[in-house]
Amino acid sequence: MDENTEQVNPQSPQGPSQKKNSSCYVKIHSHGSQVVVGVCDEKCLGLKLSKDKFQFSVTKTFFEGKRVSLEEAIVILKNSNNYNAVGTRIIQALITHKMIHPEGIIEIDGTPIAIKVSY
Fold this sequence. Notes:
The structure is a single chain. The protein is of the alpha+beta class. The chain has a single domain, classed as 2-Layer Sandwich (uncharacterized conserved protein from methanopyrus kandleri fold like). 22% of the residues lie in helices and 35% in strands. It has helices at 18-21, 60-63, 70-78, 88-96, and strands spanning 23-31, 34-41, 48-51, 54-57, 66-69, 83-86, 106-108, 111-116. The strands form 2 sheets. Strands 5-1-2-6-8-7 form a 6-stranded mixed β-sheet. Strand 7 and strand 8 form a beta hairpin. It is globular.
């Protein structure tokens, strides 16, 4: 098993290691000249979120790509004009790197989501 597919032991008294704790999924979708990236915290994959009449699904089809560290995800997103980001860890990393503004985040069922669209 390589470092990108290590299992996390949530029972650990100190929690998962930083590297494991910081993993997320990144999937790049290309359609002609248009590119959009789906990125989510590992624990968010498969969630179905809802708030009032609004629903948001963190589907494997859109988000499950390569499992990478937060640092690798940030490098990919810095070069992306369009992305959907879901989860506390990736959103905090985007804020820390000044790639999104905290006021641009929506929260559904306690899960933060940011969407960047550029033309």
